[in-house]
Design goal:
By secondary structure, this protein is an alpha/beta fold. The protein has one domain: 3-Layer(aba) Sandwich (Rossmann fold). Helices cover 40% and strands 20% of the residues. The chain is built from 5 helices and 6 strands; from the N terminus they run E-E-H-E-H-E-H-E-H-E-H. It has helices spanning 27-39, 50-55, 76-85, 101-109, 122-139, and strands spanning 7-10, 19-23, 43-47, 64-68, 92-96, 114-117. The chain has a 6-stranded mixed beta sheet with strand order 1-3-2-4-5-6, with helices on both faces. Strand 5, helix 4 and strand 6 (114-117) form a beta-alpha-beta unit. It is globular, with a radius of gyration of 14 Å. The relative contact order is 0.16.
Length: 140
Amino acid sequence: MHNGEHREHRGHHHAAQPLIAVIDDDDAVRAALSNLLHSAGYATCCFESAEAFLAGDCLRTARCAIMDVRLSAMSGFELKQHLTGLQITLPAIFISGNASPAERARAIALGAVAFLCKPINADILLTYIKRVVAHSGEQE
């Protein structure tokens, strides 16, 4: 039974392992992305809703967030806008099962790192993650 508070942590998070947030309401997508990221040397914190992510403990420690456009209550776009309002500059990679040109344009307008369609190409996703982590590491 899911109540929006479901969260999984994969990998032991320490400085050498950048933390990536995964926000998707599909259990299989969360698990697949978490496994992919873990195998590439990243720690993950996974949430099934924007609300669970906002209530979670990796909001300010994640280096990047992979977020589904279509979530149950608050959408991925609304989550990104909310984070901007809180002055949290978390780089976002939006993912969507059936992306429209309007969604892609909105993602770009919100400053997305990337907008990827499901099924996600692992190599492309990891290239974006690597770029974001390298860039955020330079800022610290």
